[in-house]
Amino acid sequence: MRIGELAAATGATPRALRHYEQQGLITSARAVNGYREYDARAAVRVRNIRHLLEAGLTLDDIRVFLPCLDGDVTAGPASAKGLGVARDRLAVLDARIAAQTAVRDRLAAALREAGDPAR
To answer: Are 49 and 62 in contact (CB under 8 A)?
Structure first.
């Protein structure tokens, strides 16, 4: 299938698919006319990549899951390495949330001190 067909089948944009390919997460063959051609397994792989991205992982994190991206990543047993990557990513997200909460609290306090009736 060509890139537009893969995009339609997975909900990814062609630009995202080219990026996944550049990052080594998916592969394509080139037709005589230079168009990318993907096999049917690419759709499963792209759906799994998108699922892991939606869960908060990065493309670098997803590389750990390469051996299982062609199957159902939610059905198999979790690997120790995969769990470690997920725990590390969760810690990063928790730290970001804490930092943003602190900034929000400082802004809310500044509004209260300024006499903002909404605060």
So the answer is: yes
- How many alpha carbons lie under 13 Å from residue 16 in its C-beta half-sphere? 14
Cβ atoms of 12 and 50 within 8 Å: the answer is: yes
Model pTM score: 0.83
Angstrom distance (rounded) from CA 15 to CA 85: 26
Contact (CB, 8 A) for 93 and 85: no
- Tokens at residue 6, please? 């893969």
The amino acid that residue 32 corresponds to is V
Number of residues in the chain: 119
**DSSP string across 13-55:** -HHHHHHHHHTTSS--EE-TTS-EE--THHHHHHHHHHHHHHT
Quote the CA–CA distance of 83 and 70 in Å, as a whole number.
19
Which tens digits make up the pLDDT trace of 17-67? Answer: 999 999 999 999 999 999 999 998 999 999 999 999 999 999 999 999 998
- Span 67-95, pLDDT tens digits: 889 988 888 788 899 999 999 999 999 99
